[in-house]
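Could you help me review a protein record that somebody else here produced? Do not assume that whoever made the record got everything right. The record follows directly below this note.
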Amino acid sequence: MSSENPDLKIAQAATLEPITAIAERAGIPEDALIQYGTVKAKVDPAKIPASGNTSKLVLVTAMSPTPAGEGKSTTTVGLADAFTLKGKKTMVALREPSLGPIMGIKGGATGGGYAQVVPMEDINLHFTGDFHAIQIANNTLAALVDNHIQQGNELNIDPRRIQWKRVLDVNDRALRSIVIGLGGPTQGVPREDGFDIVVASEIMAILCLAKDLQDLKKRIASIVVGMTYDRQPVTVADLKVEGAITLLLKDAIKPNLVQTLGGTPALVHGGPFANIAHGCNSLAATQLAQSLSEVTVTEAGFGSDLGAEKFMDIKARFGDLKPDAVVVVATVRALKMHGGIAKADLGTENIDAALEGTSNLKRHVENVRKFGVEPVIALNRFPTDTEAEIKAVLDWAAENGFKAALSEVWAKGGEGGLAVADEVLKAFDEGNTFHHLYDPEVGVEEALRTIAREVYGAKDVVFEDKAPSQLKMLKRLGWDKLPVCVAKTQYSFSDDPTALGAPEGHVLHVRDLVPKIGAGFVVALTGAIMTMPGLPKAPSALGMGVDEDGNAFGLF
């Protein structure tokens, strides 16, 4: 039963330090700390004196994920603890988990084994309420839009062209497309609507890209909620409610401080998905960590084609960040799946399949190189891996001139990440020539082609369904010079989730282009990607519960 989950047992058995001690270790003054109990707190960056310090920044990404799991967050946490063991003042900056996948199939996002951020249960459930605040802010804006129409529609909003959806932090496919306002004149104006998951909300993206409270308010004011009957944009500023929406987020914008099992201070803040949003923790948390530490370790969701590309081309661009090193997480299990082996057979040694799957890993390494950074491969060890399989993959890396090291952080915590940390330190010394993949001035259309060809291995981009008309609208309104955030399946370089390995020569199908003016980018929806996921046949929720003493079980 899932109550036997070792990750949860390890987390529950840990003795946590008081959050005040963690804050002191990080250099956070007492008056900047807003405690949520004894082991977690929010931090007010405005109350921390400017240090002028900018730490080394390590970005952790991965090969294309599989149902076997790659352990990217586990590697990120373990690597941070490894730097702490090496005497480096270190902080780790991660995203907050979404309850949708926790109750669905993916599970939590606090790492695993002896490389976790804790308190694991709190972080994976309601934590400090940030997601709830984002949900309420988003849905308050939706209610205000519908109320404006109901009360006379002074702004001449076309109900057929409202792009602002409601959100819920639940995987609920039944809410993807709905009709609201039924029941007569007092119940509102009937129109089609729908729900996204909270992590796909523009409010989430804005919270994670805002530098401070004033920047947050400015970005919220710029949100486009829909169009008028004469095809002109309607913004939150037009509705005059940016102050109210910002008020609902005044605490949520403050980063959350917790700790790793190794005692490393951890900022866990924000949580946009990488397959439908930009996949990075908040800029505020990353910059705070950099100002307080010698080494900041952060991660971006899924593979280099999603989270890492968006980190480089969106977050790093907006925040003037420069990664000093990039780690690409791989596993023998994932390599074998990309080599054609079914999940049920991964426990059987198969060196040939592992080497066949290196085509996927090689593409991710080459992708990172295109940003001017030479990555380090972290081969994350699983109990079922054989010595022969591990040796074969590490030998392959050496033969191809790739930096690589074995990571054993799940079993050994920071001690198991020392080899990877040594390779990263070498990367610091060697330096890099980091640059973005494209200049937004080339336009959305050309930016998409660059991403598709250079990162996905595609031969071209096809604009279909709503995309051609949306492209014309972007150009008409002067929004076609914004960075692009591609919503795409995480399982493949293509928009077909079944095309594993390293497919080439395919076509990227873009079906819609959605301007997110507050966030500062355009979302390109590709293939069959959904902004509201559904639950699997056997959700993880089936194995979860609380014992008679109030202790959780089944979380992972």
